[in-house]
Amino acid sequence: MFASCFKAGAAQARNRCARRGFVLVTAAGIVLLVLLPAIGLAIDVGMMYLVQLRLSAASDAAALAGARALSRGTDDATQRANAEATANTYFHANFPAGYFASTNVQVSSVAATDSAYMRSITTTSSVELPFLFLRALRLNQTTLRATVKSTRRDVNIVIVMDRSGSLNNPPAACAPLKTAAVNFVEKFSEGRDNLGLVTFATGSRVDVALTQTFKTTVESTLNNLVCDGATNSAQGLWQGYQQLAGLAQTGALNVIVFFTDGLPTAVTESFPIKAGSLCATHTDKLGALSFGGSTIYGLYRWAAPAQPLTTDQAVLNTPTNCCTSCKFVTSGLTQVTTDVSNAPLTDHWGNSLNPANAYRSVTTSGTGLSITSATNIEHFSTNAADHAGLRIRRGDPDPMNGNRTLTGVTIFSIGLGAVVDEVLLKRIANDRSLTPNPVAAGNQGLYVYAANATQLDQAFTRVASEMLRLAR
């Protein structure tokens, strides 16, 4: 290049050649001193970003898995140990050894009790990442760190479960329901969570009161359950609420899991007896009125006998002898309208059969509601269940137990098969998909539908996952 410049022989040409050489030298310097380090920095910083992202994600997955594992074990120490081991296992599963040539991977997970109803697990991790290009600046490696804490609130759960006779209809769902419910129970922590079981058919009963040692008792009770009778949803819901209100742990997550496979077909009330009735006494009779097909039945006792779990299809005069000579007793429960005047506007638990925002229209009779039509009984039984859900979510007083209250109860509803009223179950749960919801109040829950018995386990698992999400 310089030779060609000298050959030109002109001073101006030589100056141009000198400037051209200077530009090339300067460009080479910029490449060596600026561009290559910048490219190297971009590559090393990019690797840092990717490794940090993977480290944080692995730590997050570990902490969440550890929080879920707090349900494994029969005491707090075992549950903590299981949670810590699970968290560390999940971390290593999500952060492969040697990721982007990283070395010295460290992880530590620690479970702790934060407050009366709160436990947590904290996963702390670190890794050393070697630099590729920044070594030229004597920067050999960097240490990346991540800390994630997952908190789990203790849960109080009452399973309010339908055990009506329709669960025996082909294809039978009674057995799969028991299996799904047992699997559900296994997901919660003994010694910290409380779990109870209320089942309902024509009447309802507290099969297992809320307890922290629930797995063996509840699972045994479920496995021996007999499916028979009508569907007294309102009573089952309210007895579930009574359990939670009696425990009165406002710092915990209080939940009712309500399952049914059909429409409400029964209600419990103090029914007025007609003046011309053959009943020996004409005082009001407390019992459950129901129907099957177009036949009206009543009155059944609502308090079932003790274990082993048997049907509660017993007429009121057994064993109390309340209804001597009543036609509905002597006729095999099919002539209750001969003795009973009507259905009062409020059930035994304070739930309205015809509230302000009534879901179903009903036919009146005197001071109450007509019981001569199975359709009307279905409608006001449905209204009672709908109103029970609203009152529970509002935390209304319980008139049967000193007006005890409990705010913040969340209801999850599970419906099985084609007969269920999905709108009703969404109203009971205050499901966010129901818009508008004229009975929206309190916490939003979730409605889950199972088309058939094979989907029951999946439905209960989804509810459990949502509950554990809310507990964190």
Description:
With 472 residues, the chain is α/β, with parallel strands linked by helices. The protein is built from twelve helices and 14 strands. Helices cover 38% and strands 22% of the residues. The protein is elongated and about 105 Å long. The model is unreliable at 303-317 (pLDDT under 50).
Write the layout of secondary structure elements.
Layout (H helix, E strand, L loop, with lengths): L1 H7 L2 H58 L7 H19 L8 E13 L2 E13 L10 E13 L1 E8 L11 H12 L8 E7 L3 E8 L3 H9 L9 H15 L5 E8 L5 E6 L13 E8 L2 E6 L16 H4 L6 H4 L5 H4 L24 E2 L2 E2 L4 H21 L15 E7 L5 H8 L16 E5 L5 H16 L1
Parallel strand pairs: 4-5, 4-7, 7-13, 13-14
Antiparallel strand pairs: 1-2, 2-3, 5-6, 8-9, 9-10, 11-12
Q: Could you tell me the mean pLDDT?
A: 87
Oligomer: single chain
Relative strand content = 15-25%
Task: Indicate the low-confidence ranges by residue numbers.
Answer: 303-317
In which order are the strands of the major sheet placed? 6-5-4-7-13-14
- Structural class per helix/strand content? alpha/beta
> Which descriptor suits the 3D outline?
elongated
SSE sequence, one letter per element: HHHEEEEHEEHHEEEEHHHEEHEHEH
Number of helices: 12
Number of strands: 14
Major β-sheet profile: 6 strands, mixed
Share of helix among residues?
25-40%
C-alpha end-to-end distance: 74 Å
Radius of gyration of CA atoms, rounded to a whole number = 34 Å
Short description:
By secondary structure, this protein is an alpha/beta fold. 38% of the residues lie in helices and 22% in strands.
